[in-house]
Amino acid sequence: MASLAFRNLFRNTRRTVLTVMLMGFSLTALIVFDGLMRGMITLMVDNITGTLTGEAQIHRVGYLENLDVDLYIDNANEIEAQLQQDISLQAYAPRVITGAMISSSYNVSGGIVYGVDAVLEQTVSKVREAMISGEYLSGEDSELLIGVSMAELLEVELGDRIVLTLSEVDNGELAQALFRVSGIIEFGMRELDENFVFINLASARQVLGMSEQQTHEFALNFITPLDMANTNSPLLDKLNVGEIEALNWLELNPDISLILEISRYSSVMIGAILFLLASLGVINSMFMSIYERIYEFGVIKAIGTRPKDIRNLILFEALFLSLISCVMGIALGAAIGAYTSTNGVAFGEMEFSGIALNNAIFTEFNIIQFTQFPLYVVLLTVIAAIYPARFASRIIPSDALQRSL
Amino acid sequence: MSAVISTTDVCRFFGDDEETLVKAVDNVSIEIERGEFTALVGPSGSGKTTLLHLIGGLDNPTSGSVKLSGTNIAAMSGTALSDFRRDHIGFIFQAYNLIPVFSAEENIEYIMLLQGVDAVERKRRVSEILAQVGLEGLGDRRPNKLSGGQQQRVAIARAMVSRPEIILADEPTANLDSKNGIALLDLMKELNESHNMTFIFSTHDEKIMKRASRLIHMQDGKIEFDEKK
Question: Looking at the complex, does the CB of residue B196 fall below 8 Å from at least one CB of chain A?
């Protein structure tokens, strides 16, 4: 039956080729789409962790709920010592963060002030890379980097004065400090560009009335990046003691976690739609093939072929059809995937749930694209062929023979 | 002699109500003995092919029984009926009845594959039967590379190779020219005599009628008369 089934595929080469193309292209589309989704997720994760957040952060417990300036880490030097000794860590940067009223000579806006260590910050975020004009922080007291959108709102340029009005820690007293715009930055993320300013860490501590041992946040990057495949770190487990909480980027962005989950499931949904359409094509093709051969089925059934053998014949035909389709789909998917994983696919500047996707997306290969997906093609094709196979096996020889006589 | 085929009051009606009811075969009782070379004759629509299909277990009678070698095949269905046909009945159809993707040899071998005959025996029987039907050297050709007469010879070889007791042929010479038709009939007659197989044909063909040992004339689904030569 297997031999007969294989040969039958080449009786109507055009139909077989069209069916193979339908299923093969569906598989190719799924492989490429899945590769793109994986590439997009990687890009999203890179943007989340690389722009400002880092791969993990350390805070005082409760700080993240309201960004309360009074909930600072009091023993920052001890934690810093721990971080310096940990071999899994690539970089860290302390930050002092507060909400503030940001005023220029022309306008005023609420915003978030980041006090950062000019040197260490470069190792965990893209603040320096985001500079579009002026100079990066050098450690001088009055330096301030401002997001391009906020600069437009406040109508300030390089060298213009900015006054920060904020509450000191512990006592809540209002404090003001004068800065000059030393640089303008553009992350490409609306939220950051409209609301964030960066000043030197020492200046921030001074304005807020904090000592050198006090900080609000440590941003961390690891030698082996905490990506989608691995978000756990023994260091974070070790740091999660008492009043200190250390969270990875996924825990810091629970809404992003949902988006990434949806992105992953979109491959499943697209695959289901593609394969449903391909399955309908297979059923149609199989029925056409059966109707064309109905007299022949009548003959082979008349001479003693059992119904189950006829059913198996059709299922074998579907199996071979799917295997040929898989070879084509895999080859084409691998070729397109290889090209787009090297050259990327440019979608222009996009912001997806607050995450900028302004770089080309490079598709990513994964073993399941070449194992599970083809297996689905084979299974679905054979399942789609069950109905036509049952139909063929139930053909009544006398009816089939009379149709053509 | 014992009856190898026996039908008793067999009927095959089509249609559900009085107006559309067609009595294709109406109360037909016949007995055919081993080795007979019988022709079912009559005009189109007289019920020849339907009766042949009932005898071959290709269709189920509305009522009555069809016994082949004592087995009531009207009561059989599915796999049991397929197996019975495979082992006891050979079929020759009007034309175009070979599997087009198989060679002549493979077409003949196919039924033995279904029977589970081993490869060596299959090859031996195929060469033997090809010689008997005069197709030596043409076994590797596919049907589209054979003439109509040669294709029917392959069909005869396929029908006979499993050594059935009965061979049923539905208008076997209808698509052949006169010369090929006569040659084919002579071949079947020869095989009938040498192997003592029972042949039943449905036909309009005078040539078959002349060679048949028995003529069963049908009209409107009934046996008009039964003539043994």
Answer: no
* Residue A149 scores a pLDDT above 50: yes
Tokens 């008369």 belong to B225
Provide the residue type at A375 as one letter: L
SS3 B168: strand
CA distance A160 to A133: 13
Q: At which residue do the structure tokens 């059709």 appear?
A: A314
CA A215/CA A69 separation, integer angstroms? 9
Q: What is the pLDDT of residues A386-395, one digit of tens each?
A: 988 898 888 8
**Beta carbons of B96 and A404 less than 8 Å apart:** yes
- Chain B residues in contact with A12 by the CB 8 A cut-off are none
Give percent above pLDDT 90 in chain B.
Answer: 16
Q: What are phi and psi of A313, to 5 degrees?
A: -60, -45
Identify the band that residue A405 occupies on the pLDDT scale cut at 50, 70 and 90: very low
Q: Which of A132, A136, A163 is nearest to A149 (CA)?
A: A132
pLDDT tens track for A356-387: 666 788 888 888 889 988 998 899 888 888 98
CA distance B45 to chain A (A): 12
| Cβ <8 Å between A300 and B87 | no
A346 vs A323: CA distance, rounded Å: 33
Q: Tell me the C-alpha distance between B41 and B218, whole Å.
A: 6
Q: What is the pLDDT of residue B96?
A: 56
Nearest C-alpha in B relative to A309: B114
The residue that leads in pLDDT, B197 or A92, is A92
**How would DSSP label each residue in A356-398?**
EE-SPBPP---HHHHTHHHHHHHHHHHHHHHHHHHHHHT--HH
Residues of A in contact with B86 (CB under 8 A): 303-305
pTM of the model: 0.72
Contact check, Cβ <8 Å, A304/B82: yes
Query: Which residues of chain B does A317 touch, with a Cβ-Cβ cutoff of 8 Å?
Result: none
Residue A47, H or E segment: helix A13-48
Interface contact flag, A7 B111, Cβ < 8 Å:
no
Cα distance between residue B122 and residue B114, in whole Å = 11
pLDDT given for residue A404 in this prediction: 46
Chain A interface disruption, residue of B53, B76, B154, B163, most A CBs within 10 A: B53
- DSSP per position, B15-70: -SSTTT-EEEEEEEEEEEETT-EEEEE-STTSSHHHHHHHHTTSS--SEEEEEETT
ipTM of the complex model: 0.82
Q: CA–CA separation, A254 vs B142, rounded Å? A: 67
Low-confidence winner among A135-144, B24-33, B137-146, B166-175 (lowest mean pLDDT): B166-175
Count of CB contacts below 8 A, A vs B?
74
Residues of B in contact with A308 (CB under 8 A): 79
User: Choosing among A1, A13, A16, A303, which should be mutated to test the B contact, i.e. which has the most B CBs within 10 A?
Assistant: A303
